[in-house]
Design brief:
By secondary structure, this protein is an alpha+beta fold. It is about 45% helix and about 10% strand.
Length: about 350
């Protein structure tokens, strides 16, 4: 049913906009049918791709509770869909709210610092993603179905609408990456590996081995009791105020230095940590345009990690004021005498 296809498209959109890396999904084509007494109203067209200002991250104004479907003489609206989603899948509904808050924060910072995506970069990234999907559909479905038919079956969208939506989502993701990495670039930053264990003796042994020359990443992989152990305890580069138990200690270390074991409260439990400093960088007060290409390369090589988006939201939620209104310079010409 088309409402299921739209829900699937919405879920995929949430994951994409949050910066999750694209993963290969096996192509499956369900039959699309609708009950004869149900009339579905076309979704609102995506915003024009020509307008790529930060406002594309904000809800469209004025907010209108639009009709989305009709069953007989009963009209169903967007608010009904959200209310139903809230009871059927509260976590998904709340995730959508969190994403809206996140996007508003990103838009405000983009406006404040003059951050703007280029249409050329959006076209480049969206075009690459489209070609990847086309190749995947061709490989798995061959001549069984055209690409347009696949988009209609899976997303309930015509190809032109899907392409506009893809470019809009690409621009939104680009704003998210630009803002988070640009704000980070302006601050003093540190990158570390860490190890956590409930036994202080294990942590002390790891510290002793690291000081003797052992690779800290290997030690973390072996002994750390944390999901980041798979990456050798590696955290993305972060600034002061980063919401993590090792952040304060990390900024007291020099490059190549390992901390002594220290105790931290994690939830209702106490854990022991050790931190190894990989690198330290000083903040740079530079305009966005001077570092945009650098940020493009950085995001290409190292996409945003969920911990970065979470840290950004935790830090700025409720703290960011509306950007100041642009100042209108007064005329410097002498006033004419009347």
């Amino acid at each position: 049913m088309r409402w299921r296809a739209r829900l699937l498209a919405g879920v995929l959109g949430l994951a994409a906009c949050a910066g999750a890396p694209a993963s290969r999904v096996r192509v499956r084509v369900p039959p699309v049918t609708a009950p004869v007494d149900a009339v579905f109203v076309a979704a609102q067209e995506p915003r024009p791709s020509e307008d790529l200002g930060p406002e594309i991250l904000l809800p469209m104004q004025p907010a209108v509770d639009e009709e989305v479907a009709r069953v007989g003489d009963l009209v169903l609206r967007k608010s009904d869909a959200y209310s139903r989603l809230l009871t059927a899948d509260p976590k998904l509904a709340l995730s959508a709210i969190d994403l809206l808050v996140f996007d508003v924060l990103v838009a405000r910072h983009a406006q404040q610092f003059g951050i703007r995506v280029s249409s050329e970069r959006v076209e480049e990234l969206a075009g690459a993603e489209e070609q990847q999907l086309r190749k995947q559909v061709q490989t798995e479905l061959g001549n069984e179905m055209t690409f347009s038919d696949y988009l209609w079956r899976i997303f309930g969208m015509r190809e032109a609408d899907w392409r506009r939506a893809l470019r809009l989502r690409t621009a939104q993701r680009l704003y998210q990456g630009y803002v988070i990495r640009y704000l980070g670039l302006r601050e003093d930053r540190v990158q570390v590996r860490y190890l956590v264990n409930k036994d202080p003796k294990v942590v002390q042994e790891a510290v002793d081995k690291a000081k003797a020359g052992a690779d800290f990443g290997t030690l973390a992989l072996r002994w750390s009791e944390d999901s980041y152990r798979r990456d050798g305890g590696l955290l993305p580069m972060f600034g002061r105020g980063f919401p993590h138990p090792v952040a304060e200690t990390a900024f007291r270390l020099k490059r190549g230095e390992v901390s002594a074991p220290f105790e931290q409260k994690v939830g209702d439990q106490t854990r022991w940590f050790a931190v190894f400093c990989l690198d330290r960088l000083d903040g740079r007060e530079v305009p966005f345009l001077e570092v945009r290409e650098e940020l493009d390369r950085d995001l290409q090589n190292r996409p945003l990690a969920p911990i970065e988006t979470s840290a950004y939201t935790l830090r700025w939620r409720g703290k960011l004021e509306r950007p100041p209104e642009p100042k209108v310079e007064e005329s410097k010409e002498p006033a004419k005498e009347r």
